[in-house]
Amino acid sequence: xxxxxxxxxxxxxxxxxxxxxxxxxxxxxxxxxxxxxxxxxxxxxxxxxxxxxxxxxxxxxxxxxxxxxxxxxxxxxxxxxxxxxxxxxxxxxxxxxxxxxxxxxxxxxxxxxxxxxxxxxxxxxxxxxxxxxxxxxxxxxxxxxxxxxxxxxxxxxxxxxxxxxxxxxxxxxxxxxxxxxxxxxxxxxxxxxxxxxxxxxxxxxxxxxxxxxxxxxxxxxxxxxxxxxxxxxxxxxxxxxxxxxxxxxxxxxxxxxxxxxxxxxxxxxxxxxxxxxxxxxxxxxxxxxxxxxxxx
Length: 296
Hints:
Elements: H1 2-105, H2 109-164, E1 168-177, E2 197-205, E3 213-222, E4 235-237, E5 244-246, E6 249-255, E7 260-267, E8 275-283, E9 286-295
Antiparallel strand pairs: 1-2, 2-7, 3-6, 3-8, 4-5, 8-9
């Protein structure tokens, strides 16, 4: 009997545990559903608030557009009223003119003859005025041609002045040297394989139109394959094309309206190849002088 009672109690206990577990499970499911619905409602509320703000903004834009259109309509209305008034004035003027012509139609033949003579005189005056207008038109055309010529001459003069304001390179000399043998010719070496370094000298000077100050002079040396030799990591801007280019060497000078002597000494660590080498000098980004040298 005791065993049966214990089994019955265990069954009852299991039943209550199952009921409690089911209640907890239902409570958890309910909380999950509630949280999900609450999240959806919050999202819908935010979406509705955003839509409300967009509608309010659109309503404000539409109100401003309506105000602008009302202003335009009012302006057009005023113009129409002015045109109507002008039309009425023209009608009155034409009516007065018609009445005047009607009265003139009733004048006597002598008055008509006098009027005819006056009209002939007016016609002659008009022809004379037309002739004067044509002459004045021709004179104006000639003056315009002169003005165009003066404008072209002015532009040409300004271009020449700008060109004159540029610094120029003068007396450019390229000297090849060889320092390996004491008894051999050291300067103006013509054999490419013997050239150790190259000295490039020139003067930089301007005119009275040139502004004094710090100027940049870039030297570009090209080999026979038209490749830039000893290219620097930096670049400079070419003023004529706007392109950027590396350079072989660069100097900064202080120009004070006096010729500035510059010398670029370029060392050749490797043997040069035979052919035509080209040196270009840019002053403030503008090509000023080009020099070629032929090595055998």
